[in-house]
Amino acid sequence: MLNYVVFYIDLITFHTAYQLMMTTSIATPPAPPKRPRRARRRKAKVVMTNQTQTSTETTKRVKPDVELLSNEVIIKDIKNRWLLIKYEAAELSDDLIKLFNWSKTSVNKLIDRIKSVEL
After folding, report:
1. DSSP state at residue 63
2. pLDDT at 83
3. C-alpha pair distances (Å), 36 with each of 9, 20, 42, 51
4. Which of 83, 65, 63, 67 is nearest to 75 (CA)?
5. For residues 114 and 117, what is the distance between their CA atoms, to the nearest angstrom?
6. How far apart are CA 111 and CA 40, in angstroms?
7. pLDDT value at position 9?
8. Number of C-alpha atoms within 13 angstroms, CB side, residue 2?
9. Which of 67, 65, 69 is nearest to 78 (CA)?
10. Is 48 exposed, middle or buried (0-12, 13-18, 19+ CB in 10 A)?
11. Cα–Cα distance between 98 and 105 in angstroms, integer?
12. What is the pLDDT of residue 112?
């Protein structure tokens, strides 16, 4: 029973100290001054004036004089582009294989060097 009384007194003391701490100016810094509000800008009122009727002339469309590519030229271009894509893919494959082999030998050399170090 005595333990409960001591605990209750400690709790009241802590609560009072906490309230005292929260009411002092040391615990809470003063709030920064508020920035003044900017004045709201009003939109200018639009005044409608009498509108004049504009002429609605239709313009004729003119077909441009453009030379279109024939189907044979387009198919030949597609085939050439495909050959270029295949060549670039093969070159990329060769470069990736060279990179893999170089990194494999470099990592193996590094592992051998680490193993050779005596602790």
Report:
1. -
2. 97
3. 48, 33, 18, 44
4. 83
5. 5
6. 70
7. 57
8. 0
9. 69
10. exposed
11. 11
12. 92
Three-point CA angle 69, 73, 78, nearest 5°? 115
How does pLDDT run along the chain (119 residues), one tens digit per residue?
545 555 555 656 666 666 656 655 455 666 778 888 888 787 777 777 776 777 677 888 888 888 889 999 999 999 999 999 999 999 999 999 999 999 999 999 999 999 998 76
Tokens found for residue 94: 């060769």
Q: Which two tokens stand for residue 82?
A: 């495909």
pTM for this structure? 0.41
Give the number of residues written for the chain.
Answer: 119
Question: Would you state the structure tokens that stand for residue 106, as one six-digit string?
Answer: 């470099």
CA 15 from centre of chain = 48
The CB density around residue 1, as the number of other CB atoms within 10 Å, is 5
Is residue 17 within 8 Å of 24, Cβ to Cβ?
no
Q: Tokens 């009241």 — which residue?
A: 12
